[in-house]
Design a protein that fits this description.
With 459 residues, the protein is mainly alpha-helical. It has 16 helices and 3 strands. Helix 4 packs antiparallel against helix 5, helix 8 packs antiparallel against helix 10 (219-249) and helix 13 (316-345) packs antiparallel against helix 14 (363-372). The structure holds heme C.
Length: 459
């Protein structure tokens, strides 16, 4: 993670929005998919188990169909399950650019954990045909897959929950401290219930929309599948609003706003709508799969929007800072490009990369920094004295400064300006109170060079 943070540039405002969009898309395809994989593995395990205790061909057929419909496709597992895992850490590192003491360092743990989980799920799928001879092995593979995926996603959920609570980041000393968090536990409980309910709805969809023909041929089996899936989905849909509200109520105040309350109410209302729909399915056996599926996707979309909004609320200051830093970085780069173009125009031969921005090209960058970094609050550029002296025409002037209590005459040069910014109270311009605070944490080296060029240009 440290390596990553050193090598990614700070994101600008527009880029942040792009990342947000990317995160919603990833959450929208990835979370439902993982939910369906875990849910159908668990469900087929239970069906196989029941069929072994009390042999029933409907149970074993349903287990087989479920495994076949959800787990068979290797490409889907790679594209929807594994690939997004590599996008998420990148998005979070970009968002939390420059923050080191934060819980995001645990996000990369999710990648190996989930990959091992998917590996076990594949073993489970591959051993399905020979389950009668190697029942223990088959079940163990399924169980290991579920456990690995659950642990990995709990880490992800707990990390994201902590990101909604920047004031408590310092308490996150190790992984276990981070995991002990009610907010994360409620959110995870919501996701687990949602994933099982979603599996029921996805089964309705896969059997009655994708494989409609097959189902029409066998009305008894078809009725069994629709009743079973709808019943399962219904039981778990009822619990969703409860856990979602517990999650919202344990979210720290800094992360909440009215929009989030409204969206949370919408999540609960849509869950109740799905429950209504499922009750109707149980009554008449008509599967209404497409509508239920659409409503479920809406729940995933709204709840990931809530997450992103909560994170943005809780970290507004940080995001503002990052965008500012990016603005400076881009301005510096532009200035450097301009300087290079100018050198080219003037026929100078320079090896590529040796010219960095310097001289006049930095003036506009410096001007921007003067406004952005708060110098403007204490210094004018038109000769008026504010809290500090005006910066107009100071360069090259002979002035009196007090060093170690003794006054002395100096000529303002670049070295003096640099020192005035980093360590302003070494040489004090007499007659000012309060003194200037050091700007060392506020501007970095390249920014100081730009500020100096700007001050030199003020005549
Ligand atoms: C809180 C008010 C305050 C802020 C903010 C501030 N300064 Fe100052 N600055 C002063 C005061 C007061 C002095 C004179 C006393 C001293 O030297 O400490 C001063 C002195 C200076 C001097 C020496 C000027 C001279 O005439 O010799 C420079 C150069 C300077 N500041 C640059 C900056 C820059 C660049 C920034 C922004 C990064 C900045 N200051 C931000 C208050 C401030």
């Amino acid at each position: 993670m440290d390596f990553l943070s050193q090598h990614v540039i700070p994101p600008t405002g527009h880029y942040m929005m792009l990342l947000e969009f990317l995160a919603v898309v990833v959450y929208l395809v990835h979370l439902p998919y993982v939910g369906a994989v875990v849910g159908s593995t668990a469900l087929s395990m239970w069906l196989s188990f029941r069929d072994r205790e009390i042999p029933d061909s409907r149970y074993s057929r349903f287990a087989g169909d479920l495994v076949d419909a959800v787990l068979r496709n290797k490409a889907a597992m790679f594209v929807l399950g594994v690939c997004p895992l590599f996008v998420l850490p990148f998005v979070y590192v970009e968002w939390f650019h420059g923050v080191d003491a934060s819980p995001i360092r645990y996000i990369p743990l999710v990648i190996p954990g989930a990959i091992v989980g998917f590996g076990f799920i594949r073993l489970y799928y591959d051993s399905y045909v020979e389950r009668r001879h190697r029942f223990g092995y088959h079940m163990l593979a399924g169980l290991a897959g579920i456990v690995f995926l659950k642990i990995s996603y709990f880490i992800l959920v707990a990390t994201v929950a902590r990101l909604h609570d920047p004031e408590k980041w310092f308490r996150v000393k190790d992984l276990f401290v981070m995991l002990l968090n009610w907010n994360a536990i409620w959110k995870f409980a919501f996701l687990v219930h949602a994933s099982i309910a979603f599996t029921g709805v996805a089964a309705l969809y896969l059997f009655f929309v994708v494989r409609r023909r097959e189902m029409q041929r066998d009305p008894t089996y078809s009725l069994f599948v629709s009743r079973f899936s709808a019943g399962l989905a219904l039981a778990f849909t009822f619990a969703m609003p409860v856990y979602y509200l517990l999650f919202i109520f344990t979210t720290p105040d800094v992360a909440l706003d009215n929009v989030i309350y409204v969206l949370a109410a919408v999540v609960c209302a849509v869950a109740m709508l799905i429950a209504q729909l499922l009750i109707a399915v149980l009554r008449d056996g008509r599967p209404r799969a497409l509508l239920a599926m659409t409503l479920f996707v809406a729940i995933f979309a709204i709840s990931s929007t809530v997450d992103l909004r909560a994170m943005a609320n809780a970290n507004a200051e940080h995001f503002h800072l990052v965008a500012n830093k990016a603005a400076t970085a881009y301005a510096l780069r532009e200035a450097s490009l301009e300087a290079r173009m100018k050198a080219k125009r003037e026929g100078l031969t320079a090896r590529a990369g040796t010219i960095t921005a310097s001289g006049g090209a930095l003036v506009p960058v410096g001007e921007r920094l003067y406004k952005m970094k708060g110098c403007m609050a204490c210094h004018s550029i038109d000769g008026t004295r504010f809290i500090g002296p005006s910066l107009k025409g100071v360069f090259g002037q002979r002035i009196t400064v007090v060093t170690d209590g003794k006054p002395r005459q100096i000529t303002v040069d670049e070295a003096y300006l640099r020192k005035s910014i980093l360590d302003p109270n070494a040489d004090i311009v007499s007659g000012f109170k309060p003194l200037m605070p050091s700007q060392a944490g506020i501007v970095d080296d390249s920014e100081i060079s730009a500020l100096i060029e700007y001050i030199k240009s003020l005549r």
